[in-house]
Description:
The structure is a single chain. By secondary structure, this protein is mostly helical. The chain is built from six helices and no strands. The model has no long low-confidence stretch (mean pLDDT 81).
Amino acid sequence: MNWLDLLAVAAGLAMDCFAVSVAAGLTVAPVTGRHTFRLAFHFGLFQFMMPVVGWLAGKEVAGYVGGHAHWVVFSLLGFVGGKMLWEARQQKDANSGADPTRGLMLVTLCLATSIDALAVGVSMAFLPGSIWASAVVIGIVAMVLSAAGIGFGGRLGPGWGRWADAAGGCMLLLIALKTLVEHLAG
């Protein structure tokens, strides 16, 4: 995977974090530096860890898949991208009353937004190269977009997060399609 593709995957994965961060910013107004740090750090950490976990699991099954790896990558990225588009259509409640940057709610949000990164990590196991640089880039992009999202949350309308989810889903679908087309053309 080249750097441009990696940045696109990282941005696509981080759109969930961005959308949740915007909603968090709407919930905890006024947003403080502590809110921003807690949310951005934890989202970045989980987005870094989950591709590594997925990659390790994917390496265990890579030998069984063999020449069909491009279909696995296409299917997983297509599924994650489609899921993100589907979720963008759903109505989201931005005002739950609890502080989403603390405790069990924060851990739950981190897990929920990083499941997609786990699936991407599994698909990366079928591609050449190491996961570490990819995981670092994915984590940093998630951290930066999460910090931006919570910062903008207080100033934006509640419908913004849905557009971020849709954009992320489209990016992942395009990369899935590109992977398949490159294999079929080559």
